[in-house]
# Entry
Amino acid sequence: MKPERFRRVISAVLIVGVGISAALIAIGFVAALAIGWQGSLVGAGPFAAATTDFSNLPARLASLEPAAIVQLGLLTLLATPVARVAASVVGFTLEGDRLYAAITLAVLLILLTSIFVLR
Amino acid sequence: MTPGADIAIFAISAAAGLIGALAGVGGGILVIPTLTFGFGVDIHLAVGASIVSVIATSSGAAAAYVRDRMTDMRVGKLLELATTTGAVCGALLAAVVAPAFLYLLLGVVLLGTAAIQVARMGEESPPNDTPSPLAARLRLESSYPDRRLGREIPYSARRIPLGFVLMWIAGVVSGLLGIGSGVLKVLAMDGVMRLPMKVSSATSNFMIGVTAAASAGIYLGRGDVDPRIAAPVALGVLTGAIVGARLLGRVSNRAVRLIFLPVVIAVGLETIGRGLGFGL
# Structure
């Protein structure tokens, strides 16, 4: 991959990630202003747990809880730099830059460890 | 949290993002004291909200810098090894460290930031001499297009091991306090590794999001990221940062620093006061 294209891909990953997450967080926030953080946009939300609890997200999204929509946005935001690093691993590999592909892969592993292992 | 408080947090975060973007720092160091002192938010939840907003602003700004070739991706990647490990250590430490210590540390970082801003009132570009063997080996020689000078400026990194250690410390501070610690990152690249100032700022911004992501996952798993606080803070800081980035070309650096300094010094002193146990 040409460096020029590499940079454009990285830039696009960042913009799309931040855009989607900002939209989700904004929708959830406005909904919460309207109906409160414990509410649900489709009838009574049976899952309204502590807002810091990210578990059971799909079911809570299905009942359109504002807190759950914001949580999905926050997770998307967290995933954005991870996606950017993953894209860099591919980019450096395609450029034939083994040293930096390895360094970037190490950064990716540290990120994934911190997110999935160290809790 | 009442709707009034939600809106107030959004507005204050927007102001912090605006000042942060103009002054070249994330809004985090201004958001955390406001949340804890102004709204009685637990410092751990404030830190959790701040770290999330740091990812948003950094990623947004980095997108533009990467496209414009201001970011050195090799330097960034190499140093991210240091900042992410540091951030993980910092985030793990934050759970066991007393809030009083966090306040003290935040206060010291704030005053340090102010001191660096004073020192930066006038700044120049680094001298250009022969690259170190390590820089050659790691291929940390590059160039960037300087719009003001209208030509490519070549540069190479030096004192890489020392820069690496400083970056690790920046990562620890970032993980502990939920801030981007961009000032420390720029200091390591510009001051120690002698990269051009513009490259240092852009690369710092590029790295901040990844550093923050390393500790944000830990905060999230621990229940320190509360959507009720993180949503208005992230949206506010992002809005402020976008507006600030647009304004940046039109405002003089001096004017920005003259607004920023008194705020940072006041908040820094107040934070240290809290840490020492004075109810200010």
In short: The beta strands of chain B are 141-146, 151-156.
